[in-house]
Amino acid sequence: MFVIRGKSMSQTTLKRTPLFDIIAPTGKMVDFAGFEMPVLFSSIKEEHTAVRERVGMFDVSHMGELFVSGSDALAFLQQTLSNDISKIAIGQAQYNVLCQEDGGTVDDLLVYRLDEQDYLLVVNASNIEKDEAHLRQYLTGDVLLENQSDAYGQIAVQGPKAVEVLQELTALKLEDIKFFRFAQGKLAGVEMLVSRSGYTGEDGFELYMPSADASAVWNALLEADVVPCGLGARDTLRFEACLPLYGHELSATISPIEAGMGFAVKPQVKSFVGSEVLVKQKEDGPRRQLIGLELTDKGIARQDAPVLVNGETIGFVTTGTLPPTIGKAIALALVPTEYATEETFEIEVRGKKLAAKRIDTPFYRRSK
User: Fold this and answer.
1) Is the pTM value of this prediction over 0.90?
2) Hey, which bits of the chain come out as E strands?
3) Which of 2, 85, 303, 342 is the most buried (most CB within 10 A)?
4) Residue 62: its pLDDT value, please?
C-alpha cells in the first residue's frame, strides 16, 4: 500500500508546499487556496506554450491526499461519491464528484485504488478540510479515513514530450501506463506513485512522493530541461481543454450535471449523497448548462460577468480569458438550458455590453 506517514509541516500565515524554498526565488508567488504558490516563473504565455509544444512541470503539492481503507471502504465510497467505485481496478484512477444532498458540488476529485481495500482520494487544496469533514459525516463500519496531505509532494509533468523526458529518469515502462492508470516505483531515484493523468489537456503524469523527496525530484526535472510553470498557465491550459475548476464551473450551487460532468455521475447504478436530485437532472435534463462563447467585440470576459440575450441577463461567465493556443477571447458560461442553443449573446464587461457568439467545446483538443 502506498502510504508514507509524516508529521505536519510548520506553517506561516500562508501554507507552503515542500517545494517552496527552491521555487520562491524564481517564481512570482501569490496566495492561492491559502498556500503561497507560483502564479508564473517567466510568463503565462511562455509556460502555456511549453506544455502545449514540449513539456512543463507544476508544483501541485498543495492538493490534498485522503486515504480510505478497511473492509467497508468500498461501501463507504459508493455512498459518498458520484461514480461507480466498484469499477475501479487496482492500479486505476477514476474521476469523481463529492455532492451535497441537494445535488450541489462539495468538490471534484480523483480516486486511486491502491489495493483490495485501500484507496487514495486526491482533492482540491481549497477543500481539504471541508471534504474531510463532509466524508466523516458518513463514516460507519470498518473504515479508516486519514488526511495525509502534509506528508506528500506532488509534481505534474505535462506535454507531448513528457514520456520521452521522464523515461530517462525511471526504469518503469511509462508507455505501458495507460490514461488514468498508475504504477509505483522509482523515478529520479525516489520511490513514488506515477499516474498518467493531468489537468492541461495534454499527455503527462502526476507524480506523488514523500514531501522530503520533492525537491530532489524537481531538481532532476530541471536538469532534464523541463520548464517550470505556474498556476497561471495551469489555468489557461485547463480552460482551453474545458476541464472544470471548483469555484468556477463547479460549486455548492452548480451540480456536476449542469457542469457537463454527467459521465462521472451514476445515480441510475447506485444510491449516493445527492443521487435523488441528480437522477432527475439526468433523466429530465438540467435547468442550466455550460456553453462556450467567443467575444466578437474587443474585450475579455471574466468570472461572474453577466450573460445577456435580447438585453435580459440570463446567465453568467464561469471562466473567461484570452488563452495562448486559441488566441481569441473565449469564455465558459452557465445559462438556462432553453438558451443553450442560441447563437448570439452579449457579455457585460465593465459596464459595456460586448457581442459574443456560441462556439463548440472543448476549445482545444490535443492530437493523438
Assistant:
1) yes
2) 28-32, 35-40, 56-59, 64-69, 93-99, 105-115, 118-123, 144-147, 152-158, 182-187, 190-195, 204-210, 227-229, 288-295, 306-309, 312-321, 330-336, 344-349, 352-359
3) 85
4) 98
Strands 144-147 and 152-158: unpaired
Characterize 193-213 residue by residue with b for buried, 16 or more Cβ atoms within 10 angstroms of its Cβ, and e for exposed.
bbbbbbbbbbbbbbbbbbbeb
- Provide the Cα torsion 263, 264, 268, 269; round to 10°: 120
**Is 111 within a domain?**
yes
Instruction: Choose one of 263, 286, 309: the last residue of a domain.
Output: 286
Q: Are 169 and 72 within one domain?
A: yes
Q: Is residue 367 part of a domain?
A: no
Do 271 and 295 lie in a common domain?
A: no
Judged by DSSP in three states, 248 sits in: coil
- Domain assignment of residue 155, given as a range: 1-286
CB contact burial 306-331 (16+ within 10 A = b; e otherwise): bbbbeeeebbbbbbbbebbbbeebbb
Domain membership flag for residue 366: no
